[in-house]
C-alpha cells in the first residue's frame, strides 16, 4: 500500500522510518512545505530500506499522493518546553485548512491518519474539512499513551508490555484517563496478577505510573525538544492494521456520537481497526472515578473544539 506523509519533520520522518523498517508500506511519499526537507528525509529513510523490506521512498508535491491508501498528517507546529497541546490548536487548524485541500484533491479515497496536536481536535477538524465519514479519519489519539502505560505497568509487574492489556482513554493530553479497572496482565485483572507476582499496585505505584504516562511528553520535550520514536512506531502500527485489515484493537481517536453524555466529540476509546478504518468501538469497564474523569476529558475537548467556530 502507498502511504503519504504530509509534514516531514520529526514525527513524519519517524513514521516513514518505522514503516520502512516494519515493511508497512510498498511506497512512502513525503510532502512538506519545505521541499528540501521532504527530499532529504526521503533520501535518508531510503537508505534504511536495504536493511529492511522493499519499499520505494520519495518526496513529492500533493499530486504525488495519488493512489495512497493512507495519508498521515503530521504537519504543523509542535509544543515548546512547558507548552500544552491544546495551545497549538488555532495554528494547526490553519495548517490543516491548506493541507486537507491538497490531500483530497490528489487522494480523495485515502484514509486520513492524524498525528498533529492537539490530535483529538485536529481529527475533528480533518473530519469536518474532508467530509469523509468519521471512521475514515483516525487520530493516533492515545495509542502512544497506551504504549507508555503498558511499558511502565509491564516494568512494575516484570512482564513484557505486549502481555499487558491496558488502555489510556479520552484526550491525548493532560485530561487523559488511565483505565486501571479494565487493565489485564495475561488474562488476569492487573491487581490479581500483581498480588500473584508479589508486586502490589499501591497508591504510590499508581501515582508514579500515572505521572510517568501523563507527563512523558513534557519530560521528553524538556530533554530533547520533541518526541518522535514512540509516535512514529504507533503510526506505523495503525497503518499496518489498515493495510492488512487486521481488525486490531487499538486506542485511537475519532469523532464519536456520544461518550459519557458528551455528544460529537473526538477522543480515544479502544476501537477495532481494519481496512475500512474504525470498524467498532468498545466501552471498557470503568470504575466510577474513571467514568467521571472520561466525562471531564470529553468536556474539555468539546469546549476547546467549540472555541474554533
Ligand atoms: N499525536 C502524537 O502522539 C504526537 C503528536 N505530535 C505532533 O505532531 C506534529 C509534528 O511534530 P514534529 O514533527 O515534532 O514537528 P516538526 O516541526 O519537526 O515538523 C512539522 C513539519 O510540518 C511542516 N509544515 C508546517 N506547515 C505546513 C504546511 N502548511 N504544509 C506542509 N507542511 C507543513 C513543517 O515544514 C515541518 O517540517 C506537532 O503538532 C506535534 O505536536 C508530536 C508527537 C506525538
Ligand atoms: C508530543 C506528544 O504529544 C507526545 O509525545 O505525547
Automatic annotation (TrEMBL):
<dbReference type="InterPro" id="IPR018177">
    <property type="entry name" value="L-lactate_DH_AS"/>
</dbReference>
<feature type="active site" description="Proton acceptor">
    <location>
        <position position="172"/>
    </location>
</feature>
<comment type="similarity">
    <text>Belongs to the LDH/MDH superfamily. LDH family.</text>
</comment>
<dbReference type="GO" id="GO:0006089">
    <property type="term" value="P:lactate metabolic process"/>
</dbReference>
<protein>
    <recommendedName>
        <fullName>L-lactate dehydrogenase</fullName>
        <ecNumber>1.1.1.27</ecNumber>
    </recommendedName>
</protein>
<feature type="binding site">
    <location>
        <position position="140"/>
    </location>
    <ligand>
        <name>NAD(+)</name>
    </ligand>
</feature>
<dbReference type="GO" id="GO:0005737">
    <property type="term" value="C:cytoplasm"/>
</dbReference>
<dbReference type="InterPro" id="IPR036291">
    <property type="entry name" value="NAD(P)-bd_dom_sf"/>
</dbReference>
<feature type="binding site">
    <location>
        <position position="150"/>
    </location>
    <ligand>
        <name>beta-D-fructose 1,6-bisphosphate</name>
    </ligand>
</feature>
<feature type="binding site">
    <location>
        <position position="11"/>
    </location>
    <ligand>
        <name>NAD(+)</name>
    </ligand>
</feature>
<dbReference type="GO" id="GO:0006096">
    <property type="term" value="P:glycolytic process"/>
</dbReference>
<feature type="modified residue" description="Phosphotyrosine">
    <location>
        <position position="218"/>
    </location>
</feature>
<feature type="binding site">
    <location>
        <position position="32"/>
    </location>
    <ligand>
        <name>NAD(+)</name>
    </ligand>
</feature>
<comment type="function">
    <text>Catalyzes the reversible oxidation of malate to oxaloacetate.</text>
</comment>
<keyword id="KW-0560">Oxidoreductase</keyword>
<keyword id="KW-0021">Allosteric enzyme</keyword>
<dbReference type="InterPro" id="IPR022383">
    <property type="entry name" value="Lactate/malate_DH_C"/>
</dbReference>
<comment type="pathway">
    <text>Fermentation; pyruvate fermentation to lactate; (S)-lactate from pyruvate: step 1/1.</text>
</comment>
<dbReference type="InterPro" id="IPR001557">
    <property type="entry name" value="L-lactate/malate_DH"/>
</dbReference>
<comment type="subunit">
    <text>Homotetramer.</text>
</comment>
<feature type="domain" description="Lactate/malate dehydrogenase N-terminal">
    <location>
        <begin position="1"/>
        <end position="139"/>
    </location>
</feature>
<dbReference type="Pfam" id="PF00056">
    <property type="entry name" value="Ldh_1_N"/>
</dbReference>
<feature type="binding site">
    <location>
        <position position="85"/>
    </location>
    <ligand>
        <name>substrate</name>
    </ligand>
</feature>
<feature type="binding site">
    <location>
        <position position="62"/>
    </location>
    <ligand>
        <name>NAD(+)</name>
    </ligand>
</feature>
<feature type="domain" description="Lactate/malate dehydrogenase C-terminal">
    <location>
        <begin position="142"/>
        <end position="304"/>
    </location>
</feature>
<feature type="binding site">
    <location>
        <position position="227"/>
    </location>
    <ligand>
        <name>substrate</name>
    </ligand>
</feature>
<dbReference type="InterPro" id="IPR011304">
    <property type="entry name" value="L-lactate_DH"/>
</dbReference>
<keyword id="KW-0597">Phosphoprotein</keyword>
<dbReference type="InterPro" id="IPR015955">
    <property type="entry name" value="Lactate_DH/Glyco_Ohase_4_C"/>
</dbReference>
<feature type="binding site">
    <location>
        <position position="79"/>
    </location>
    <ligand>
        <name>substrate</name>
    </ligand>
</feature>
<keyword id="KW-0520">NAD</keyword>
<dbReference type="Pfam" id="PF02866">
    <property type="entry name" value="Ldh_1_C"/>
</dbReference>
<feature type="binding site">
    <location>
        <position position="92"/>
    </location>
    <ligand>
        <name>NAD(+)</name>
    </ligand>
</feature>
<feature type="binding site">
    <location>
        <begin position="117"/>
        <end position="120"/>
    </location>
    <ligand>
        <name>substrate</name>
    </ligand>
</feature>
<feature type="binding site">
    <location>
        <begin position="115"/>
        <end position="117"/>
    </location>
    <ligand>
        <name>NAD(+)</name>
    </ligand>
</feature>
<dbReference type="GO" id="GO:0004459">
    <property type="term" value="F:L-lactate dehydrogenase (NAD+) activity"/>
</dbReference>
<feature type="binding site">
    <location>
        <position position="165"/>
    </location>
    <ligand>
        <name>beta-D-fructose 1,6-bisphosphate</name>
    </ligand>
</feature>
<feature type="binding site">
    <location>
        <begin position="7"/>
        <end position="12"/>
    </location>
    <ligand>
        <name>NAD(+)</name>
    </ligand>
</feature>
<dbReference type="InterPro" id="IPR001236">
    <property type="entry name" value="Lactate/malate_DH_N"/>
</dbReference>
<keyword id="KW-0963">Cytoplasm</keyword>
<feature type="binding site">
    <location>
        <begin position="76"/>
        <end position="77"/>
    </location>
    <ligand>
        <name>NAD(+)</name>
    </ligand>
</feature>
<feature type="binding site">
    <location>
        <begin position="145"/>
        <end position="148"/>
    </location>
    <ligand>
        <name>substrate</name>
    </ligand>
</feature>
Amino acid at each position: 500500500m502507498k502511504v503519504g506523509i504530509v509534514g516531514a519533520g520529526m514525527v513524519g520522518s519517524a513514521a516513514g522510518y518505522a514503516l520502512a523498517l516494519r515493511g508497512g508500506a510498498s511506497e512512502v511519499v513525503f510532502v512538506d512545505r519545505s521541499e528540501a526537507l521532504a527530499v532529504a528525509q526521503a533520501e535518508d529513510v531510503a537508505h534504511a530500506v536495504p536493511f529492511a523490506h522493499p519499499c520505494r521512498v520519495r518526496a513529492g508535491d500533493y499530486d504525488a499522493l495519488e493512489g495512497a491508501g493512507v495519508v498521515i498528517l503530521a504537519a504543523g507546529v509542535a509544543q515548546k518546553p512547558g507548552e500544552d497541546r491544546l495551545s497549538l490548536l488555532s495554528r494547526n487548524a490553519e495548517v490543516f485548512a491548506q493541507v486537507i485541500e491538497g490531500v483530497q484533491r490528489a487522494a480523495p479515497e485515502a484514509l486520513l491518519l492524524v498525528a498533529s496536536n492537539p490530535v483529538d481536535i485536529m481529527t475533528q477538524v480533518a473530519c469536518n474539512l474532508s467530509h469523509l465519514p468519521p471512521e475514515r479519519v483516525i487520530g493516533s489519539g492515545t495509542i502512544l499513551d497506551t504504549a507508555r502505560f503498558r511499558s511502565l505497568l509491564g516494568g512494575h509487574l516484570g512482564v513484557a508490555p505486549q502481555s499487558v492489556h491496558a488502555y489510556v482513554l479520552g484526550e491525548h493530553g493532560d485530561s487523559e484517563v488511565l483505565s486501571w479497572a479494565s487493565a489485564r496482565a495475561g488474562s488476569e485483572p492487573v491487581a490479581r496478577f500483581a498480588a500473584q507476582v508479589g508486586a502490589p499496585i499501591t497508591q504510590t505505584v499508581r501515582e508514579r505510573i500515572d505521572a510517568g504516562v501523563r507527563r512523558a511528553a513534557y519530560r521528553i520535550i524538556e530533554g530533547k525538544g520533541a518526541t518522535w520514536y514512540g509516535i512514529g512506531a504507533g503510526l506505523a502500527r495503525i497503518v499496518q492494521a489498515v493495510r492488512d485489515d487486521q481488525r486490531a484493537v487499538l486506542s485511537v481517536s475519532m469523532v464519536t456520537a456520544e461518550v459519557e453524555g458528551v455528544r460529537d466529540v473526538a477522543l480515544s476509546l479502544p476501537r477495532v481497526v481494519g481496512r475500512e478504518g474504525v470498524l467498532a468501538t468498545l466501552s471498557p469497564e470503568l470504575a466510577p472515578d474513571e467514568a467521571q474523569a472520561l466525562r471531564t476529558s470529553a468536556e474539555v475537548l468539546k469546549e476547546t473544539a467549540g472555541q474554533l467556530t
